[in-house]
Amino acid sequence: MVLGVRLYSALYPSWGPVCLLLRSFASCSGNPASCCTMPQLGLLHGRAWAVLFGQLRRPPGAVCIGAVHSHSQGTRDLSPQQMVVREKIIDMVVSCFKRHGAKGLDTPAFELKEMLTEKYGEDSGLIYDLKDQGGELLSLRYDLTVPFARYLAMNKVKKMKRYHVGNVWRRESPTIVQGRYREFCQCDFDIAGQFDPMIPDAECLKIMCEILSGLQLGDFLIKVNDRRILDGIFAVCGVPESKFHAICSSVDKLDKMSWKDVRHEMVAKKGLAAEMADRIGDYVQCHGGVSLVEQMFQDPRLSQNKQALEGLGDLKLLFEYLTLFGIAEKISFDLSLARGLDYYTGVIYEAVLLHTPAHAEEEPLNVGSVAAGGRYDGLVGMFDPKGHKVPCVGLSIGVERIFSIVEQRMKTFGENIRTTETQVFVATPQKNFLQERLKLIAELWDAGIKAELMYKNNPKLLTQLHYCENMGIPLVVIIGEQELKEGVIKLRSVASREEVAITRENLVAEIQKRLSES
């Protein structure tokens, strides 16, 4: 056995520790129990022996491969087909942001932990903390809003309209089918600065409507409320101010739980008196349009609260602007909307897809909200040493949830997705034409044409043409001995299979003409 182990050690040097163990085992007459001490390896229990021998029985190449069997929970890989769809979604969202005058911004993936704490209410427990690195306590960003506020305060920026596309991380239980992940992409648009009431807020809602309509996801509704109205409701219902945030986070669950369950949480878990919870229930189960705003103005209790009146006044003005934008019918004043994040101070909103799919063949997919946002006038001041505030309002588009819907639609209709943008393939029917193909493709690349060739010296023409059909490449340029002699190139349409001879000097112009017409 010792000789066999030495041979294995010579063949696979990286297995040195395992082979060292086996030599020790062999010298113990094959009885691991008799090997009480091994200075190089220490004492090993029976299970450790079993693992090591199990590894040795596998082929050498399989040792590491078997260990990497999946990505971490709540994350995923995106195939080339999925990347095409995802990029189209993001491109459309960003083009809308730019149409409204936003400029791009990026911030680090992680922040100082102290910058993120006490900004997210009960959700603060979902923040990913990083191990201490050289004395700094760091956390992965939970959203793109808090880093934006930190950027404004740090750079003393008083006005800015920005968009930001980036990944965020949350330690929540992932629900892959609903587009909920621990790592996911957000597309944010925010307006920072002191402006007249509700004009920026109305634009944010207009942007949400434009994006959701443009993506053709089906019918949708945007719920709107105001944190001042909620706080006013809590106050007139007798809730102590110290419990406002806790009760607000319970109300925020009404889109996932029944009022009965939310009431039970308020009373049994958060210590609210039952009669107070019942009074809250009379309000938060109401929803409607601008007529509900007027109704709340007349409410005998709510009309006595200054905060609530301010919120109702802003919502009335907001509905006037939304009517002018032509989107009022897409907006619902919903008193159950709470948005659990602590930094919201005024108008809040959330877009949900209605259960009717865009096409009759589709199954309805419940993904929750697909966009959300609101006003956060105090967040920047939390980062400023002197507490200077910069009023802000913004929105976030849930790319992963939207992608889940689009992905389901692709499966339903069996849509084919091109994974490359190649416009021309450079081919040859003859051997020893690699140099000519390389010269020709360089001309196309230099002219800005997206082109490919096969990485073989002597590829078969049929193989090259099949590749073009499979990849959806529209044009093929063919060069051979006859073409070289006559100073022409054959230009072939993959769809029609028609070929024409084009002079070399006119080839680029002809290709560009055909591409512009397609």
From TrEMBL:
<dbReference type="InterPro" id="IPR015807">
    <property type="entry name" value="His-tRNA-ligase"/>
</dbReference>
<dbReference type="InterPro" id="IPR004154">
    <property type="entry name" value="Anticodon-bd"/>
</dbReference>
<keyword id="KW-0030">Aminoacyl-tRNA synthetase</keyword>
<dbReference type="Pfam" id="PF13393">
    <property type="entry name" value="tRNA-synt_His"/>
</dbReference>
<keyword id="KW-0436">Ligase</keyword>
<protein>
    <recommendedName>
        <fullName>histidine--tRNA ligase</fullName>
        <ecNumber>6.1.1.21</ecNumber>
    </recommendedName>
</protein>
<feature type="domain" description="Aminoacyl-transfer RNA synthetases class-II family profile">
    <location>
        <begin position="73"/>
        <end position="429"/>
    </location>
</feature>
<keyword id="KW-0547">Nucleotide-binding</keyword>
<dbReference type="InterPro" id="IPR041715">
    <property type="entry name" value="HisRS-like_core"/>
</dbReference>
<dbReference type="InterPro" id="IPR045864">
    <property type="entry name" value="aa-tRNA-synth_II/BPL/LPL"/>
</dbReference>
<dbReference type="InterPro" id="IPR006195">
    <property type="entry name" value="aa-tRNA-synth_II"/>
</dbReference>
<comment type="similarity">
    <text>Belongs to the class-II aminoacyl-tRNA synthetase family.</text>
</comment>
<dbReference type="Pfam" id="PF03129">
    <property type="entry name" value="HGTP_anticodon"/>
</dbReference>
<dbReference type="GO" id="GO:0016874">
    <property type="term" value="F:ligase activity"/>
</dbReference>
<dbReference type="InterPro" id="IPR033656">
    <property type="entry name" value="HisRS_anticodon"/>
</dbReference>
<dbReference type="InterPro" id="IPR004516">
    <property type="entry name" value="HisRS/HisZ"/>
</dbReference>
<keyword id="KW-0067">ATP-binding</keyword>
<dbReference type="InterPro" id="IPR036621">
    <property type="entry name" value="Anticodon-bd_dom_sf"/>
</dbReference>
<keyword id="KW-0648">Protein biosynthesis</keyword>
